[in-house]
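Internal tracking record. Fields below are filled automatically when a chain is submitted to the structure queue. Please do not edit lines marked as system-generated. If the sequence contains nonstandard residues, flag them in the REMARKS field before resubmitting.
Queue: standard
Priority: normal
Entity type: single polypeptide chain
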Amino acid sequence: MITGSLVPNITMFDADGQLDIARTKWHMRWMFERGVDGLFLTGSYGSGPLMTVDERISVYAAAKEVAADFSGKTLIAHVGSIDTASTVALARAAEQLGMDAVGAVPPFYYKHSEDLVLQFYRDLIESTSLPVYAYNNPETSRFSFTAGTVRKLQDMGLAGMKDSPLEVGFVSRVYYENKLAGRQFQVILGTSKGWLPFYYMGVRAMIAGMSNWAPEIMTALTRATFDGDQERSERLYVLMLDLSAKMHFSDSTIVSLMGLYARGYDAGYPRKPMQLPPFDSPKYAEIRGWLEDGFAQAGLALEVGQGSVV
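SYSTEM-GENERATED OUTPUT FOLLOWS
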């Protein structure tokens, strides 16, 4: 079972839009050193839909190289693509590179029937011996999973589901149906929101975007939860929700890069058409203030780099 707090890590590019593997590896290592339990590679935060198949594979390889210096880090390669052939190619490469699992949103942009989505996952599951996780993210894929869809996928061998909307009725039904039936099927939260209540239900893993720029807070929250320190976990959970809400002013990839810059780290660039605000924008200083206050409330030291834009 996958456990703990993973991160949908961002992929970094240079000013010309070329993949910056060195900087991306630095960021992976930086997060691992601060307690992040694993990576969800080339998903939405990781700009997967903006990258070629070969670029995504190079990020998987980079993650494997960095994780080799640590113990017990989980690597999930997001392989979801607009077409089946690319998805299968990515899954096979992920298996060859030694990823722990693969995940995939349904094929996006075009609106597909359930039958076609099921065939997409059947092809994916049959292409690899790695555990396959479906990724329920209707905002990007134009397809919403139902409990019935999940049951059909389980019959094909689906190992679990990453869920981002966190509709309580749907997630709890999937979880409890499998628990009551004694089936090995894992639900992973696709966001840190809902972590505590779903943990008490029995969920044991989340993929938290905040770890891109404040992994110390997510690590403290996760450890307090698993250690049974209810008061601290509740305080950190509310703090996380507050800080997360403040940072939801733009696309998640952009705010992650801005959070790193606000901490004094040169985080490179997003790939166009995404674009960072100018470095003289007062928003960076505002983010720095939020971080200083949040870390102080958590009783944590805010480490900063040498390239601050504030």
